[in-house]
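Hi again,

Forgot to attach this to my earlier email, sorry! This is the prediction with alpha-D-glucopyranose bound. I've pasted everything inline since the attachment limit keeps bouncing my files.
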Amino acid sequence: MTDAVLVETRTDDAAAWWRQAAVYQIYPRSFADANGDGIGDIPGILSRVDYLADLGIDAVWLSPFYPSALADGGYDVADYRDVDPRLGTLADFDAMVAALHERGIRVVVDIVPNHTSDLHAWFQEALAAGRGSAARDRYIFREGTGPDGSEPPTDWVSVFGGSAWDRVEDGQWYFHNFATEQPDLNWAHPEVREDFLTTLRFWSDRGVDGFRIDVAHMLTKDLTEPLPSRAELDALPQDGNHPLIDRDDVHEVYAEWRRVFDSYDPPRTAVAEAWVSTPERRAKYASAEGLGQAFNFDLLVADFDAPQFRTIITDNLAQAEATGSSTTWVLSNHDVTRHATRYGLPPLDGRAVKQGTEWVAAGGPAEGIDVAQGLRRARAATLLLLGLPGSTYLYQGEELGLQEVAEITPEQRQDPAFFRGGEFDGLGRDGCRVPLPWTSSGPSFGFGANGAHLPQPSWFAEFAADAEAADPSSTLSLYREALRLRRELQAEERLDWIETGRADVLRFSRPNGWQVVTNFGAEPFELGADADRVVLGAAVDSAVPGESTVWIAPTA
Ligand code: GLC
Ligand code: CA
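Structure tokens for the complex follow:
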């Protein structure tokens, strides 16, 4: 086991490490490629642990690295308790965990319980065993409709577009919320439940500190016949009794998981990816009897706009207080357009990104994007976030100020959502998954010794980590400084708004006296004597320039 170092240095409240952690999301196949096959791998991550330590994050979250046909970037898992041979071995994984723990960085892994890969042993067994078999009962198989059963059981549509049903050789149909290669599991099946407990113990025993739960709100289903039509399904409220989404009975699953998490010292943590209809519904996932924390994606669907930010911040802090959890700030992840690009686009109008609780569609730079403004606003928004109570999830490459990559031809694209034309309309999600530029020259900008599995545009040179590390005004330098100062700023999980007299300027203080001021507008915001205590971001003529954030240290 690899967690010896960390366990010894933990204090009593080490169990609460996640509450205000800065968690850096690694998308393994696009992070660093150690063996030059074009796909990022675990030894690649190991080779960059010093970079992660210098960045100053508290934890990494690894998107799936399990054996997979990569039909959905690894979210199609063929074996939950192994490492994809292209990405390394379990021994490599252990070495990576040990190296991260030595630097005080915790490790969170992704659990994908809603569906397996169609290559998973269970699904292969279900195919071979035939209709009516016990093996098929681990998934959702149904007879088709129409005279010869050649029509799907219902007209339901998958999240990625196209029918949510596919037909197997003997004529039965199986249900998949996502791609064809991602059959949904039957969570009413005791073996399915038991097996995930085994998986949680497997990684916990290897020293993993926490889990990110993929589409946590979709596992349980009520598929009592007759099944509703798509229109009927869409009209049903998502109040805990919807047949497919955010059912109350899913929390029975997480109560069992919680018992596993709490059997470890310190308890393993979990964060739910739950796109649900209201903050109250989200709170159930964040409860201490359940997963403990849930992603708040509100800022993914907000404009760069002071009143929107203020409402979202206030609401989420109130909600965290009510549940006893801490909130989670997110501006970018592997499913959405990078925020440096979003903020350079016209305000969200449903064209580039979907609104509400819908998935946010990744688009890539559209015509009319203002790259400089996007980056300016991204830096301002990130500094605001890092000053807030709660934990912040950062997505690899955002610390370089990376833009979404649009220059990917249809032939080069990999995202099943692009090919199925579903809710991630437009270009799909490949544009935020392009392998990172580590060096401003050389093969695949230092990602690996050869090429990269998605094409890197020439402008990646400007954003390379080596160039930015040497430049004190770079986005990387800003992130490093912010993450360093954040350790001083973090205090009691509270903030107090300070009225600014301007609708486009937000200002708050933390209980220990640190202040954060974000100017969302164009006109400079005057700070007066407080300008002398600006330690992050820059005051110009004692004012906060437009579209920027400053941190003000407490008075001595
Ligand atoms: C989650 C993941 C996304 C994946 C989907 C299906 O939303 O973040 O990348 O495609 O689940 O597993
Ligand atoms: Ca590789």
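Confidence is low (pLDDT under 50) at residues 1-12, 349-366. The radius of gyration is 23 Å.

That should be everything now.

G.
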